[in-house]
TrEMBL record:
Tetrapolymerization of the monopyrrole PBG into the hydroxymethylbilane pre-uroporphyrinogen in several discrete steps. This is Hydroxymethylbilane synthase. Keywords: Porphyrin biosynthesis, Transferase. GO terms for biological process: heme biosynthetic process. Its EC number is 2.5.1.61. It catalyses: 4 porphobilinogen + H2O = hydroxymethylbilane + 4 NH4(+).
Length: 303
C-alpha cells in the first residue's frame, strides 16, 4: 500500500492553486494525498519591504521547517521565491511544465507611459528595469500577495502595477487592461513551480519524478545558475529568461543598479543539450565587464 503524501503549501490563493494542481496530478497517478496549509512569514510581515527583511527564503522558510520536522512530505513553491541553495536535507523533486514567464503591467490607461506617471511594485528587479526605460516615472513600493496588490492598485491613484502573468492567470485575476512587458527580463524561474522533498524520502522523490518537465528544468536551472553566480546571497535586481525552441536554448540575462541608471544585459544561445555551466558563463561575462563593481555597490546598500 502506498502512503498518503502530505503536501505542504502556503495559504494564499495562488499557493493553494499551485498545491492543488500537484495534488490532482498525484491523484491521477493513483496516489493518496493530503493538503496541509502552513502560514508563512512572507505574507504576514508587511510593514517592511521584502528586501529589507534580509532573510533568504522568507516565503519558503516555514515550509522548510514543516518538512524537516516531518509535518509534511513535500512542499509546492513558486520556484522564483526559492533561494538558489536549498536547506540541507531538502532536494528538488519535480519542476512542472512552466507557464507564462512574463511580467505584465496592469494599468488604468496607457497615456502616462510617454509622460509622467507612478507605477507600483515591491520588486527591485521590476523597479530598476522600469526606471531604466522610463526615467521620468516614479516607482512606489507595493507588497502583499497578488490579491492584496490588485486591491491596493484599485484603491490608489497609481497609473499601474507590475505582476507576474502566471500568478494572475492561475487564479483568474487577469483584468482586461494589461500590457505584456516583453522587454522586461523576468525573475529567474518566474512562472515555474517547484516541488521539494526530503533527500532521504525515496518514495516521494521517485513518485514526483513523473511530474518533472525536462525542458522547463533545463531553462530554470540555467536561469538560477546565472542568478547564483551573480548574487552571492543578496536580493539584487537580476533578471534571467531561458527558452528552448527547436533544440536551441535562447538566454537573456540582466543586472541593474537599484535606481535603474546602470544596466548589464546579455543575450546568448546554446544547444539545449549542452547547457551545463552555461548560466554561470553568462554571469561571469557580466561580472568581468563591470558587473562585479555594481554587485559590490548593491551589496553595500542592501546589507
Ligand atoms: N513574489 C511573489 C510571487 N511569487 C510567484 C508569483 C507568481 C507566480 C510565478 O511567477 O511563478 C508571485 C507574484 C508576482 O510576482 O506578481
Amino acid at each position: 500500500m502506498n502512503k498518503t503524501i502530505r503536501i505542504g503549501t502556503r495559504d494564499s490563493e495562488l499557493a493553494l492553486w499551485q498545491a492543488k494542481t500537484v495534488q490532482s496530478a498525484l491523484e491521477t497517478l493513483g496516489h493518496k494525498t493530503n493538503l496541509v496549509p502552513v502560514k508563512s512569514t512572507g505574507d504576514l510581515n508587511l510593514d517592511q519591504p521584502l528586501y529589507e527583511m534580509g532573510i533568504t527564503g522568507i516565503f519558503t522558510k516555514t515550509l522548510d521547517i514543516a518538512m524537516l520536522t516531518d509535518k509534511i512530505d513535500i512542499a509546492v513553491h513558486s520556484m522564483k521565491d526559492v533561494p538558489t541553495a536549498l536547506p540541507k536535507g531538502i532536494v528538488e523533486a519535480a519542476i512542472l511544465k512552466r507557464a507564462n514567464s512574463k511580467d505584465i503591467l496592469v494599468h488604468k490607461g496607457l497615456d502616462f507611459l510617454e509622460s509622467k506617471g507612478t507605477i507600483a511594485t515591491g520588486s527591485l528587479r521590476r523597479k530598476a528595469q522600469w526606471l531604466n526605460k522610463y526615467p521620468q516615472h516614479a516607482v512606489v513600493d507595493l507588497r502583499g500577495n497578488v490579491n492584496t496588490r490588485m486591491k491596493k492598485l484599485e484603491e490608489n491613484s497609481w497609473d499601474g502595477a507590475i505582476f507576474a502573468a502566471a500568478g494572475l492567470e492561475r487564479i483568474n485575476l487577469t483584468p482586461e487592461n494589461y500590457l505584456t512587458l516583453d522587454w522586461m527580463i523576468p525573475a529567474p524561474a518566474q512562472g515555474a513551480m517547484l516541488v521539494v522533498a526530503k533527500e532521504k524520502d525515496e518514495f516521494c522523490r521517485k513518485t514526483l519524478s513523473a511530474l518533472n518537465h525536462k525542458e522547463s528544468e533545463i531553462c530554470v536551472h540555467t536561469e538560477r545558475e546565472f542568478l547564483k553566480t551573480l548574487e552571492g546571497g543578496c536580493t539584487a535586481p537580476i533578471g534571467a529568461l531561458a527558452e528552448i525552441r527547436d533544440g536551441i536554448l535562447y538566454f537573456k540575462g540582466g543586472l541593474y543598479s537599484l535606481d535603474g541608471t546602470q544596466k548589464f544585459e546579455i543575450e546568448r544561445v546554446v544547444s539545449a543539450n549542452q547547457t551545463q555551466g552555461f548560466g554561470k558563463k553568462c554571469a561571469e561575462e557580466i561580472l568581468k565587464n563591470g558587473g562585479s563593481e555594481l554587485m559590490k555597490k548593491i551589496r553595500e546598500v542592501l546589507k
